[in-house]
């Protein structure tokens, strides 16, 4: 694709094209990080990008830049094809879609799929080999089910969803439009609810629903449990990375982002736009306000206010935690000094 | 179902029915949490339940209560149908089973299942689509295998087990009666054993067994490894949540409960009734006594005595940890005070 | 197998046989830990092994020993069959392979497998039931694909690989020779890359590769993501345990070992021979030098020098961390002492 063709497409995009210099209008075959790019590849930079220093020596063919004079000056001096955008990262995402158009799955049901006679398959659905769909389950128009997906009875999948290989949807799963469930993820599994009795743990039946609103994405191997009653709900546009556990009865607002290996215990409530970094844990019935952020490995009990940034376990405000952590590594010195002071005051 | 019918069933149950007032004998269609219940729904309260305050305004149709005068007074005043029980949570579990009877899987082998000719299938087993069963493996009477389950050679599954979609059982897996393996869990996988050599890591063959005693439950995506020699053993009635790792050669007693994302390294030994909260880690060869409890994210080395409650990493007694954690957030102040004291004593 | 036969095999092995006493040349049927071994079983000891004290009373039939006089003396006194080796653990691995020879999977494609017409299957490959292989994917000679494996389009699997049940390989996966992917693992899944926009999270297309060099092993349920551009690379001979997350664009050197539930965020770089214990987290773009070791639950930001041993979160040198952790449990006492000192100096 010529760079000029790409520019025309970016003009229609959301990234805010401000300027374009097509230079020799190079043929762009693919994309790469700036320090590894070849002359037929596209790269991007944004403010504060660690690769900025690589720009002067990069063999890159064309580059998407933020509106930053020093970078534009380098591009001009080197006679590079470039574009200036309000959001060069977003432009790069748009460009990657153009350079690597997704192959549209063919509609139809593979001969090896096993569909219950009471399953409802809307038009334009693609059902791959070895998919199983249970009774009273419905697959929305345009959805794609990759090989080995298992859908139990009583599941609703909205339009244009994509379910990757070997993903499993249990009874009571309710997916909105344009959801993505990645390989080996499990949605709607039984919550971990047991009643202690004299004879041991007795299962609390888990009869509720799991609702994934529109545009939710569930990463590989992640598990979203259904509750005993009521629902587990993931708000529209929330994105969940790999190997995340969402317990029974959790509710999560819109546009949250949960990094890998996060665990959220039963009944916790997250607002809109909450960001949890890797390996964060959230305790039973914790409440996290809108746009709060927890840094990696934090453990959250109780309540986190909207907009707060927390760290550590138990989680405390991030700035305080940074200072406490720095002090932690000084603890042996502090203990020694304390002993000395005690001796000197005892004299 | 009329509330009076439910009451008759609870009389036969284990929850200790002490009193029942059927009021208008409402039709109960399902169950819900007290703050969300409608007039055709059942709820429950127990001592200290956070929803107690919602009771006065709840639209609930009938409620299961502990023997607590204030709650009974409200129920009587509102003319509600209610029952008083020794264990209202257990009664709620029993009621949920009545309200949502499990559809019994039909016995038989789906045409798309692939069974080795040396596999043994006992009577009344239900084998779903695309299940594979290897040579010399045996499936006990009444067990249910959901779609996509893979059973390698040399596996024994006891009676009335349930194996959910895409679960995998490796050679040497030995399941007792009434075990449940949830979707995408893996039992009997090779332990992570490698011998360092001049040429790199050399695999230690993992030739042992994994024994799940009666009533063990393994959560979605959890992995239970087999050891090089001997066995990994999970005691009767132990319950394991999602995404838990149990390493090779671990032994666990009866009635343990492991929350999500717990990791237990090779050779650790857990007694009976041990409870590990979410994301706890247990190191190689650690020993945990009966009924010990570890709070979330704890890391356990060495030994934990029976009945102890531990927290933190490295794990220390919970009460001490609470005080240490509180002090941790005061560390910058402490460091400052220490500097001041040093200055003042130096004068 | 007679012990003398085993000895002959060990002479050809890599473990450095220094001496052998066949005694009554017992028949060895299998192997066991020293404290559980019977007279037809083989065990081993190495320097500092915790089971050394069990040696005197063990019923073991034959034992592999390090060159340690006290152990040899016990073996001689008891008239045991034994061998002395430079590396008795390695010898035990070799012996287990002899005692439990792996059943060679039969070459051929099961009738229920679904292969795209543009898939390339080299000679001697074994493809189990219900395997799916997409277009333009190639399976190297001698590889074994267990039931339910799903290989998307555009995947290359080298020679003599083993893919366990229900493992999934996504487009852009490139496996070298003799790789093992365990059950329910996912290789080449989409990296967790989203661009924040006014309309919510917008997916950054993940168009790169995942390269597993020769001899890499990926544990059950682990996930190795592909990046937006460039590659995620796992160096030759690196071993990854269960439920590990390797983010998009991570590069890892040769011979690394990652224990269970480790999480490595996007773009981190690990050198050769790095060892990460269970539940370690590595942040975005962290850099870990050759042969560095992180103890369990550490959290690594920034840089770790070659050969360093780190612990804690944020990770600090292990020795310092041990002292700091010991001091942590003394924090309440320290705080009390500090208050007292303050009072006494204030007077």
Please give a structural write-up:
Three copies of one chain form a homotrimer. Chain A is α/β, with parallel strands linked by helices and 347 residues long. Chain A folds into two domains: 3-99, Udp-n-acetylmuramoylalanyl-d-glutamate--2,6- Diaminopimelate Ligase, Chain: A, domain 1 (3-Layer(aba) Sandwich), CATH 3.40.1390; 167-322, Hexapeptide repeat proteins (UDP N-Acetylglucosamine Acyltransferase, domain 1), CATH 2.160.10. Chain A is 17% helix and 30% strand. The first copy, chain A, is built from five helices and 39 strands. In chain A, the strands form five sheets. A twelve-stranded mixed beta sheet of chain A has the order 6-9-12-15-18-23-26-29-32-35-38-39, with helices on one face. The N and C termini of chain A lie far apart (83 Å). The mean pLDDT of chain A is 95. At the A-B interface, strand 19, strand 20, strand 21, helix 4 and helix 5 of A face strand 2, helix 3 and helix 5 of B.
């Amino acid at each position: 694709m010529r760079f000029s063709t790409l520019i025309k497409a970016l003009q229609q995009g959301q990234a805010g094209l401000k300027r374009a210099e097509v230079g020799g209008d190079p043929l762009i075959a693919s994309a790469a990080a700036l320090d590894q790019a070849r002359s037929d590849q596209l790269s991007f930079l944004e403010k504060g990008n660690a690769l900025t220093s690589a720009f002067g020596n990069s063999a890159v063919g064309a580059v998407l830049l933020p509106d930053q004079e020093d970078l534009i000056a380098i591009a001009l001096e080197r006679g590079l094809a470039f574009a200036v955008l309000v959001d060069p990262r977003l432009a790069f995402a748009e460009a990657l879609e153009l350079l690597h158009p997704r192959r549209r799955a063919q509609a139809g049901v593979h001969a090896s799929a096993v569909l219950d006679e009471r399953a409802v398959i809307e038009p334009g659905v693609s059902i791959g080999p070895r998919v199983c769909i249970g009774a009273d389950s419905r697959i929305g128009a345009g959805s794609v089910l990759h090989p080995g997906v298992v859908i139990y009875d009583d599941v609703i999948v909205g339009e244009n969803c994509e379910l990757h290989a070997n993903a499993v949807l249990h009874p009571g799963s309710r997916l909105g439009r344009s959801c993505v469930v990645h390989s080996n993820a499990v949605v709607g599994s039984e919550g971990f609810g047991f009643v202690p009795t004299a004879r041991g743990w007795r299962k609390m039946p888990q009869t509720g629903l799991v609702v994934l609103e529109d545009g939710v994405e569930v990463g590989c191997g992640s598990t979203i449990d259904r509750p005993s009653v009521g629902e587990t709900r993931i708000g529209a546009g929330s994105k969940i990375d790999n190997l995340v556990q969402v317990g029974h009865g959790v509710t999560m607002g819109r546009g949250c982002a949960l990094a890998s290996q996060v665990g959220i215990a039963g009944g916790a409530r997250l607002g809109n736009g909450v960001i949890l970094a890797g390996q964060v844990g959230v305790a039973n019935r914790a409440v996290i306000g809108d746009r709060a952020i927890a840094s990696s490995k934090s453990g959250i009990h109780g309540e986190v206010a909207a907009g707060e940034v927390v760290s550590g376990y138990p989680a405390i405000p991030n700035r305080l935690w940074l200072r406490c952590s720095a002090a932690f590594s000084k603890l042996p010195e502090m203990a020694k000094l304390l002993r000395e002071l005690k001796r000197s005051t005892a004299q």
